[in-house]
Amino acid sequence: MKVSIFDVAKKSGLSVVTVSRVINGAGSVREKNRQKVLEAIKELDYRPNAAARSLASGKTGIIGLIVTTLQDSFFDAVVKELNEVLALHGYFLAISISTGIGSDENHYLIQEDRVDGLILLSPMQEDNYIVELKRRGIPYVLIDNQQPENDSYSITIDNVKGGYAAARHLLELGHTSIAHLCGQEMFRSTRERRAGFLKALEEQGLAPFEVVHGDFEIAQGYDTAKRWLSEGNLPTAVFTGDDNIALGVINALMEAGVRIPEEVSIVGYDDHYIASQLRPHLTTLRQPADKIGLAAADMLLKRIGGTMKRGANVRIDPELIVRESTSSK
After folding, report:
1. Could you give all domains of the chain from N- to C-terminal order, each with its CATH number?
2. Which segments of the protein form a coiled coil according to its record (predicted)?
3. 175-178: long-range contacts (C-beta < 8 A, 24 or more apart)?
4. What is the distance between the terminal CA atoms of the chain, rounded to a whole angstrom?
5. Which 3 state secondary structure label does DSSP give 48?
6. What pLDDT digit, counting tens, does each position of 8-39 carry?
7. Which of helix, strand or coil describes residue 235?
8. What is the distance between the alpha carbons of residues 234 and 177, in angstroms, rounded to a whole number?
9. 295-329, pLDDT tens digit by residue?
10. For residue 187, what is the enclosing H or E element?
11. Helix H or strand E encompassing 263
């Protein structure tokens, strides 16, 4: 038997009106009651009738998501959370892999009446998107955007704090010869992680062993570590811009018989799936995909519902996950 809104009301112990307000993203519901309704919806596997809601509200029931790639476990986790949260509110998530603002897929998504709102995940050319979305009156939220001036209606990670935490962890273990391998300079996360790292070292009057600029790729870590080995000069610790770079460093050092963490400690960033599968397990900074997805969905629903009049930035802290790839000097 199909679950109805009345079943959700009964399960949550609240009125049908309150349940309806939660489903439609109204801001006039107490947070405690909103959580009760969401829990009841999840337990009962309730799916609002999108067609009926569309006819009643004049909305499509579709949220667009533009992402640069899905070949990334962090992005994948954020998308999964967004899909689950939006489904609880009766929305369907339409995903487009971005090839730029002018691509056919993105043009389709941002046409009038195609979507009720749009989420941009780690966008490139975000200024162009924002101009077009504002022109068309489409509510939007940015996740991991590149330009600080666009932080209104955005969810960002405190990457400065993440880089600082990575360096502090290594410093507290007694390391003073610490290298940092960056990702691409176009990414805000690259610049902020490096800034946090350098700040922690400067506080101790230390300079980095080396700061190496490159890509968020395994090859970046592998080639750099191979060069260090050929030069006969290794740092005692490495902080990498992401877990892929860390994997490359580990591969090169282990091929050469360098013990990790006894001879070189390594800290990654992101807490990709591979981080807990590597040997040794990788110490890394976790970006909480569940919190990021929930915050983005909540902000967009409030914008669609008209209850969020002013822009706001939600900044989420990364979490240091200490595993086996770091030890004291």
Report:
1. 1-46 (1.10.260.40), 159-287 (3.40.50.2300)
2. none
3. 175/236, 175/237, 175/265, 175/329, 176/204, 176/206, 176/236, 176/329, 177/209, 177/235, 177/236, 177/237, 178/206, 178/208, 178/209, 178/235, 178/236, 178/237, 178/238, 178/239
4. 63
5. coil
6. 888 889 887 788 778 766 667 788 888 888 88
7. coil
8. 9
9. 999 999 999 988 887 888 999 999 999 999 999 98
10. none
11. none
Residue found under tokens 């009766």:
90
Location of structure tokens 């740092």: 235
Q: Is the peptide bond preceding residue 280 cis, with omega within 30 degrees of 0?
A: yes
Whole-prediction pTM value? 0.80
pLDDT tens per residue, range 177-235: 999 999 999 999 999 999 999 999 999 999 999 999 999 999 999 999 999 999 999 99
Residue 271 near residue 281 (C-beta atoms within 8 A): no
Length of the chain: 329
Residues contacting 43, CB < 8 A, separation 6+: 11
- 236-249 burial, b at 16+ Cβ within 10 Å, e below that, comes to bbbbbbbbbbbbbb
> Six-digit token pair at 187?
């990414």
By CB neighbour count within 10 A (0-12 exposed, 13-18 middle, 19+ buried), where does 176 fall? Answer: middle
Tell me the two tokens of residue 166.
């990575």
Instruction: For 188-221, give the secondary structure using H, E and C.
Output: HHHHHHHHHHHHHHHHCCCCCCEEECCCCCHHHH
